[in-house]
TrEMBL record:
Keywords: ATP-binding, Decarboxylase, Ligase, Lyase, Nucleotide-binding, Purine biosynthesis. This is N5-carboxyaminoimidazole ribonucleotide synthase. The gene is purK. One of its GO terms (biological process) is 'de novo' IMP biosynthetic process. Pathway: Purine metabolism; IMP biosynthesis via de novo pathway; 5-amino-1-(5-phospho-D-ribosyl)imidazole-4-carboxylate from 5-amino-1-(5-phospho-D-ribosyl)imidazole (N5-CAIR route): step 1/2. It comes from Arcobacter arenosus.
């Protein structure tokens, strides 16, 4: 076991101060570690629970260097970060996990897909786009993705015709994918530490809000046959080993109508599909990343109870200071946990919090969660039509 860390006085840097960083910081503080976060927003969610807040952007080389220099190990809660200075620091022996080289590869969705494909991991058929003719090479409809900068449905476009190529196509660097005949969208959180120890959480099923293509609900475990579950776990493990990743990774998968499991994409950080682990698993994904990047033994990923997680998104037609409606009635639902991220401003479809509902029966958990979703609303101080 690596002995480089003094665990009684360990300093962890987290690049990013949103809700993921907030819960990571809370778990690190529980273990007695000192936490510094880097984020441009004053009083961002993670700043509310951390020891130190470096106010700076994710492309500010001086601030990125500061957080690495001041901490024993640095990790991420988001991937859209300038890796130039981080690669230099990593090359000089600073501990940054996942490595800036892994992060840089994953930032480019095309290069990520190409590597997985080269390693024999099943992915949808894809092709680099150099001109409008390439956009039509798989026929229509087809999925176009920006190579860089996409998240939460942004940077993804379905093109249904040549006319839409002219009017809706992404004009940044992009690639296309075949439109997969999807039965279910699945995900697995995979943890891997510095020693190469690897553990998978249960396979979960993701349901999406089709208005904005944001993950809306997560069911753990997924309602899939055992052989599909095993195939998904095997593919996800191989994907993280192919990347030589250290930390926590959200592996998003497609289950096709004919029973194939394909990797959609990988997030190199805690993932929305793993929020349920706080209440439902022996070790949450947020504690697990702290263990992984400090080379502590990985915790048990045992599912203690079936669970459903629902994202609480800012209501349509509202923005401004957030107000929570229905919390009293929602918390009367048995085995419901409520998380509010502490963001000072809401807007339509912004992730403002989540709920997790436990039940021995996954379908009953879903029923209770949907009831809570109808009750709980995050509205802003300004309404517009």
């Amino acid at each position: 076991m690596n002995k480089d860390f003094n665990y009684s006085n360990l300093k962890i840097g987290i690049i990013g101060g949103g809700q993921l960083g907030k819960i990571m910081s809370q778990k690190a503080k529980k273990m007695g570690f000192h936490v510094t976060i880097l984020d441009p927003t004053f009083n961002c969610p993670a700043a509310q629970v951390s020891d130190k807040h470096i106010i700076g952007g994710f492309y500010d080389k001086d601030k990125l260097e500061q957080i690495v220099q001041e901490n024993d190990v640095t990790t991420f809660e988001l991937e859209h970060v300038d890796m130039t200075i981080l690669k230099e620091l990593y090359n000089h022996g600073h501990k940054i996990h996942p490595s800036p080289y892994v992060m840089e590869l994953i930032q480019n969705k095309y290069e990520q897909k190409k590597l997985l494909d080269e390693k024999g991991i099943p992915v949808p058929m894809y092709k680099d786009v150099r001109n409008d003719e390439d956009l039509a090479s798989f026929g229509f409809p087809v999925i176009q993705k920006a190579k860089l900068g996409g998240y939460d449905g942004k940077g993804v476009q379905m093109l249904k015709s040549q006319e839409e190529v002219n009017t809706k196509a992404i004009r940044d660097e992009s690639f296309i994918e075949e439109l997969v005949n999807i039965d279910k969208e699945l995900a697995i959180i995979v943890a891997r530490n510095i020693e190469g120890e690897i553990k998978c959480y249960p396979v979960v099923e993701m349901l999406f809000d089709e208005r904005v293509n944001i993950c809306d609900s997560v069911l753990a475990p997924a309602r899939i046959p055992f052989e599909i579950e095993q195939k998904a776990i095997e593919i996800s493990k191989k994907s993280i080993e192919a990347l030589n990743g250290i930390g926590i990774f959200g592996v998003e998968l497609f289950l096709t109508k004919d029973g194939k499991v394909l990797v959609n994409e990988i997030a190199p950080r805690p993932h929305n599909s793993g929020h349920y682990t706080v209440e439902a698993c022996a070790t949450s994904q947020f504690e697990q990343i702290i263990r992984a990047v400090t080379n502590l033994p990985l915790g048990s990923t045992k599912l203690i109870s079936p669970a459903v997680m629902i994202n609480l998104l800012g209501e349509e037609n509202y923005e401004g200071e957030p107000f929570i409606h229905g919390i009293h009635d929602a918390l009367e639902i048995p085995e419901l946990s409520f998380h509010f991220y502490g963001k000072s401003y809401t807007k339509p479809f912004r992730k403002m919090g989540h709920i997790t509902v436990l039940d021995d029966d996954i379908n009953k958990a879903l029923e209770k969660a949907m009831k809570a979703k109808d009750i709980l609303k995050i509205k802003g101080s300004k309404r517009y039509v």
